[in-house]
């Protein structure tokens, strides 16, 4: 039997995925395939490459992300991501889906065609950049003659590739829980709240198709840009597994089923 792991987008909140994966690995959960959007795609790629969750967290805490961003003058976004390709090539030098240790699907949105695109083979880095290209913040990414933005625009919890791959037990990790009771005091808050509402509305039906879902409400207190709180967000994900006895029993029960 095959276990699939689907990881949502959510900016810095996506660091939560690392904590969840660490807890699953400690319980010897064998992940057969990963599907992710945006931050979930990035985490999925690094783990599928072979980095441990702790290694990825350590790298996140030391990287100066501003070094890899450039302002965009009169472009369709505030920042350009092109220089970030250097960072990806340091982390994933093979730049290939086929050389990952776990099969991975990366979700992006073709902004011109208005279509979801699932990447599973060939070049890895440009699809990852496309999947995490937040509209309005970053210039869209051109790849294979198509123009892409963040996969979360159309699918923030991409279960479909895993279901097509006949995964029999689906673990979903969503870092956009029901909205917290935060006051609306700035333009940034209005924009972020609006994006999260739109994304969550499209995600709820997909969460119901997961046999196991980790969606801790505690992660909602962090902003999508709270990279400085990476360690706290990591622990939210970790404890969402370790402090959920019912879900742990479900994992144990499933792990005892005969494997085909």
TrEMBL record:
Instruction: Give any GO molecular function from the UniProt entry.
Output: hydrolase activity
Q: Is the Cell division keyword given for this protein?
A: no
Pfam families in the cross-refs? Patatin
The yes or no answer to whether the keyword Lipid metabolism is present is yes
Question: What Gene3D superfamilies has UniProt attached to this entry?
Answer: Cytosolic phospholipase A2 catalytic domain (3.40.1090.10)
| Residues of the PNPLA domain | 5-163
Catalytic center residues: 38 (nucleophile), 150 (proton acceptor)
The residue numbers the entry assigns to motif GXGXXG are 9-14
Motif (GXSXG) spans which residues?
A: 36-40
Give the protein's recorded name.
Patatin
């Amino acid at each position: 039997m095959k276990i699939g792991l689907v990881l949502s987008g959510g900016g810095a909140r996506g660091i939560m995925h690392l904590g969840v994966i660490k807890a699953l690995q400690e319980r010897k959960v064998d992940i057969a395939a990963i599907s992710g959007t945006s931050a979930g795609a990035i985490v999925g790629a690094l783990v599928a490459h072979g980095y441990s969750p702790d290694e990825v967290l350590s790298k996140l805490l030391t990287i100066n992300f501003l070094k890899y961003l450039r302002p965009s003058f009169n472009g369709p976004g505030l920042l350009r991501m092109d220089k970030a390709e250097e960072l990806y090539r340091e982390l994933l030098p093979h730049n290939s889906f086929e050389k990952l240790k776990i099969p991975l699907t990366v979700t992006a949105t073709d902004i011109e065609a208005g279509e979801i695109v699932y990447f599973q083979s060939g070049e890895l880095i440009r699809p990852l950049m496309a999947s995490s290209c937040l509209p309005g913040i970053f210039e869209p990414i051109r790849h294979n003659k198509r123009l892409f933005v963040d996969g979360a625009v159309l699918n923030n919890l991409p279960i479909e590739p895993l279901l097509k791959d006949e995964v029999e037990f689906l673990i979903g990790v969503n870092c956009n829980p029901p909205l917290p009771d935060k006051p609306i005091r700035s333009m940034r808050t209005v924009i972020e709240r609006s994006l999260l509402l739109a994304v969550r509305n499209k995600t709820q039906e997909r969460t119901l198709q997961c046999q196991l879902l980790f969606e801790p409400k505690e992660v909602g207190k962090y902003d999508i840009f709270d990279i400085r709180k990476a360690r706290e967000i990591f622990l939210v994900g970790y404890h969402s597994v370790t402090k959920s006895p019912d879900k742990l029993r479900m994992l144990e029960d499933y792990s005892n089923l005969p494997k085909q």
